[in-house]
Predict the structure of Amino acid transporter.
Amino acid sequence: MFSTAASSSWLAGFTVCLSLIVSIGAQNLYVLRQAVQGEHVRACVAWCVLSDAILVAVGVAGMAKILGASPTLAHYLTLGGALFLLAYGLFAWHRAFFAADQKLDASGTKAERSLLTVLSALAVITLANPHVYLDTVVLIGSIGAQQDGMAKWFFVVGAASASLTWFVVLAFAGRKLQGVFANPRAWRVLDTLTGAMMFVLAWWVYQGLQGA
């Protein structure tokens, strides 16, 4: 049975993490696409939850303090995050306006890629985005680091629980949308909206850099 302090720390981790990951980001959109295609969805969810848990734990263990004491490193992480989002948006718009039509076949799947290919792409999207480190390591990690003793690790478990909840919901939503994405136009609409959202996020991140 959790103590009051442990329960409070778990709830804090769950709430903080959920408030940050429930947004339209590169990783979320990738998982949504995989869920729509029915391609290695469980592995994608597992990767996302594990990577979130590890990054938050690293932040709680002290990396957030190190990064917080280095404004120059934080500056370049923020700039890198803006550039990553811009590049992701450009790739999405290239698919929307220039790539061949995409669609699901009658079984609800496309030509399946290997597990290694899918997870490698997801790993790049997760770990090559510098803004991810600002969210998980610096922001969530610094909040978790303020917990006392073992409560820090209940905070990490809470954050991982939030990540698991969100990505399971996202995967379920993707499966329900398979009928919609049997139409190639739906993929172009998704990529157009994805690109626009990435540009907005890139601008928002860059504006934060200008105001720092």
About this structure: The helical segments are 4-21, 26-37, 41-68, 71-97, 115-127, 130-144, 151-176, 184-211. The CA atoms of residues 122 and 134 lie 18 Å apart.
